[in-house]
Amino acid sequence: MTDLLQLVFSGMATGSIYALAALGFTLLWQASGTVNFAQGEFVMLPAFAMLAFGNLGLPLPLAFLATCVLAIGVLGWGFKRGIADPLLKFGLMPIVVATIGLAIALRNGVRAGISAQAFPFPSLFADKLFTLGGVTVSLADVGTLAIAVALVLGTQAFLARTVTGRAMQAVAQNTESATVLGIDVPRMVFYTFAINAVLACAAALLVTPTYLAKFDMGESLGTKAFFAAIIGGFNNSRGALLGGVIVGVGENLAAAYISPAYKDAVALVLFMGVILFKPQGLLGKRVERKV
Amino acid sequence: MTPPEAPSAPPPQGGATSGPAKPVPQWHASKPVILAVLTLVLLAVPPFLKNYGIYLFTYWLVFVIATMGLNLTVGYAGQKSLGHAAFFGIGAYTVAILMKAGVSFWLGLPAAMALCFAIGLAIGFPALRVQALYLAFATLGFNTAVWLVLRNEEWLTGGTFGINNIARPSLFGLVLDKPLAFYYFTLGVAILLAWWLWRLLASPWGKAFTALRDNPIRAESLGIDTRAYTLLSFAIGAVYAGVAGALFAPLVEFIEPAPFGVSTSIMMYLMVVVGGAGYFFGPLLGAAVGVLLPEWLRFAQGWYLFVFGVAVVALMLWLPDGLLSIPERLRARRLAKAARAAALAEPVEAQA
């Protein structure tokens, strides 16, 4: 029983990181119809940026802030202007292909330009273990879960409670009406890209101590984030959290009780199950077809 | 009772969501000439090549066969599949395992085709429930699952050690183990399959596939059984990949899980898009780019995949509809120029 609880808990910590990546992905989709297949690489790059700033002698919090600024510029503005804007008018396929190409380029650019090795990454948390009712949990798991959940709920609150957030939602729901109401649509869409970049940096900060900074760390992370987003509901931000946690816990349980060899198939099986019975995801709303 | 639809994206800024409708294959005056030249090259050039050149040509043909199938699924029926390499692998392993068990290639091939058809139908079912984006992920995940089975079930697939010494088949008593002989055999299969696909696309079925792609709702309202055509486009595409896999196994004589992973699927998808999705000859170009580009990019060594990725992004930005859309774009540009010239000429006439 305690084993089970331990697995569930550490699964929730991993899952909350998936949720961060999934949330950015969902926001991009809602606001502009951008599908980012390079989402995992958007987590990998900040990890390397933070290491680089760390080598320059910046302490981790400052390195994180500097990376966020850089990411908003490159992964937010640069990505929007350079790839999303020119391609969105051609529909879904070109943007999917281009972001796949971008992922390949980023992954292998890091591999050839920096190194194919895995680098250790400083953890935010001390190496401490607690025992709660017979269950041993690490401080890193508790901290990761707390920060990730706070970020997801914070993003949600920002979207629901602030004027800017509501304007962003308006743009996501109906671009034309938003324009008529005098909302600065391009700016709101850019904010979405910026938030996605910051969330990716946060995910990098939390995930890299365990995953290690490696050129291909984004590959599985990206895929799992997509599955998490879809399981939870693609048009619902809270769904990202639920989906992420479900995938994280499911993977841990499958690795322990079924076979570690098939751990990576868990997200897929859950996803298949969900879309066959609830195509809009667990928390998603039905959207009727537009003719 | 229509299947529920996945949440659709808001229309992107810019309004227009669909690209120009692509033509169903038609005979142009130039087409027979192009075909004749192409056939001549494919028949006459390889004998003058070294073994590695012949190998590359054969390798390219295998990918042409696979991407023809994917072009049907993606380009003509509009189903975004990113799991094509899974069928490629299923075909290759089916033939390899059966041949190792002493079964003839000529029984292995239909077995591979039948298996791919059945699994393709099964994978088509989620496609009935979900839309473009989800489907891309579902097929991607399916590919991962197949890859995991190939890697983990050692009793069947040899796991990471793979299956080696796969014999080349023989045809009418001729053993096709010389590179050139096997090349001509592959060419024959490719031509046969291309002809069959051509017939299919020119038939009412082909029209139904393109109707499904261009406007699924309208297609349904016209009485096209969209469910059946969606499933069929997957299953037929999968059969092409299965045949390609069945040829790939004896060509490389050693198979392991690596070439049948998600990256190959993405590569095949790129081949289709680069060549021009929904253009009949797209796969010829796309597969050539996909197979030859790595050869040309050898100078880049470690940077090769980086250059490749950048090239893909650049190509999408420049030609979102693929290489074969160039003539159409040129024509459109000429027409626009003519229209502009006419518009400029008009006020002058009015003054006169």
TrEMBL record, chain A:
UniProt GO MF annotations: transmembrane transporter activity
Similarity comment: Belongs to the binding-protein-dependent transport system permease family. LivHM subfamily.
One of the record's GO cellular component terms: plasma membrane
Primary location class: membrane
Protein name per its UniProtKB record: Branched-chain amino acid ABC transporter permease
Sequence intervals crossing the membrane: 7-29, 60-79, 91-108, 129-153, 189-213, 225-249, 255-277
UniProt keyword terms in alphabetical order: Amino-acid transport, Cell membrane, Membrane, Transmembrane, Transmembrane helix, Transport
Protein's membrane topology: Multi-pass membrane protein
Residue ranges that the Swiss-Prot or TrEMBL entry lists as coiled coil: none
GO BP term (any one): amino acid transport
Keyword Transmembrane part of the UniProt annotation: yes
Subcellular location: Cell membrane
TrEMBL record, chain B:
UniProtKB keywords: Cell membrane, Membrane, Transmembrane, Transmembrane helix
A GO CC term attached to the entry: plasma membrane
Pfam families attached to this UniProt entry: BPD_transp_2 (PF02653)
CDD domains named among the record's database cross-references: TM_PBP1_LivM_like
Keyword Zinc-finger among UniProt keywords: no
Bias kind Pro residues: ranges: 1-13
Keyword field contains Cell membrane: yes
Broad class of the protein's primary localization: membrane
Membrane-related topology note: Multi-pass membrane protein
Region (Disordered): 1-24
Residues in coiled coil: none
Name of the protein: Branched-chain amino acid ABC transporter permease
Species name: Ramlibacter agri
